[in-house]
Design brief:
This protein has 146 residues and is an alpha+beta fold. The protein has a domain at 19-110: Immunoglobulin-like (Sandwich). It has one helix at residues 115-143; strands spanning 2-7, 10-15, 21-26, 31-36, 47-54, 61-67, 73-75, 87-96, 100-106.
């Protein structure tokens, strides 16, 4: 739905998407989590498409896309190459066939251009990823019948 707002000689259009999505961003790690707004349950396999606004003021560019994991998480700032150092801001489309669509904006992780701070953040990401994989493996092995 598009709503037109008029006032004090200004005209603005706002777009609202009917959805049941709650998007939580953790900018320090370049990660977002998608949950059902009504139940709070994580939503896996939700499509995420990320565009970046460049620092130099050029044309916005495609950054990456993919799907949320089993915990409803997606690392929007992770990419091969050094595109992250050129990103000033992100626009992120989150789209679910069942729960609707939503667009959010956020900043890249602080220190993404600083190799020392970026290395610390990368180490923290790796630890979280290992913990998540261990959790998924432990749940899978408990559910296996011998």
């Amino acid at each position: 739905m598009v709503i037109e707002i008029l006032g004090q000689g200004k005209q603005e259009f706002k777009t609202f998407y009917s959805n049941q999505l709650k998007i939580t961003t953790l900018e320090a790690f370049g990660e977002l989590k998608v949950t059902n707004a009504d139940t709070g349950k994580p939503l896996p396999s939700v499509y995420v498409k990320v565009f970046a606004q460049p620092k130099n003021g050029g044309k916005d560019f495609f950054f990456r896309d993919g799907y949320t994991d089993i915990c409803g998480k997606f690392e929007y700032s992770q990419t091969s190459g050094n595109k992250l150092k050129d990103a000033k801001k992100f626009a992120i489309l989150v789209q679910s066939d069942k729960f609707g669509s939503k667009i959010t904006e956020c900043n890249p992780p602080k220190g993404s251009g600083d190799s020392q701070e970026g290395g610390v953040m990368q180490a923290a990401k790796m630890t979280r990823l290992e913990n998540r994989q261990n959790y998924v493996q432990s749940k899978g092995s408990k559910n296996m019948k011998m």
